[in-house]
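Q: My collaborator sent me two sequences in one message, no labels, and asked for predicted structures for both. Can we handle them in order? The first one she listed is below.
A: Yes, handling them in the order given. First sequence, followed by its structure tokens:
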Amino acid sequence: IKEDIEFTHHDHFVGVGFFNLRDIDGDGLDELILVEETAGKLTPYDEAVIFSDVKDYIHILKWDGSKYMTMWVSPPYTKRGTKFLVEDIKNTGKKQLVVLTPYGTIQIWERQ
């Protein structure tokens, strides 16, 4: 069975750079968590393409019983290479989204 998962993405969408399935909200169903890659300009250069004004966005998509809906979108990361994991690193009983940014920093996002 083939099914395409559609999601609202930003202008100049290039593709999905990284994704995972994890139950981040504790309801027993995995959410689809992905990194959307965008580029403002695509410039041909000696048989290659140079991307400028790149941005990564993390999306969390939740199954509503018939399709995936956007649950959350991060602010933009202005370099490529954003990675994440989902774990309860604070031992609170709730999972956090731990983001390794392309700037060499770690961010922890958590539901209120």
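Q: And the one she listed second?
A: Here it is, processed independently of the first:
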Amino acid sequence: WATAASWHWTGDREHINCLKLRAVLTSLRWRLERHKRVHVKFVHLVDSLVCLHCLSRGRSSSQKLKRTLLRTNALLLVSKTQALWAYVHTKQNPADAPSRHPRKRKWGHA
């Protein structure tokens, strides 16, 4: 595993579910920009059941999650990409360690 992007959060305090959903959107953007391929299927692991259910249904009743979720859905739709969202426990999540000790960089060479 290699870290593709990590940084310190400097914005306003947000709920953890909003931040995790934004991390999914960031990784999706990285995947599409890096590989420059459309019409693909892929598996994406998340360690939040709230995000998993929002992403798998494509909707949420939470106003705070809706904006990021709509952006994620739009990106999947326009790129003709199909995601299979799967749950991974936090202790087994390879992306958990970089999120705890971020280095300031965007789009590394992973």
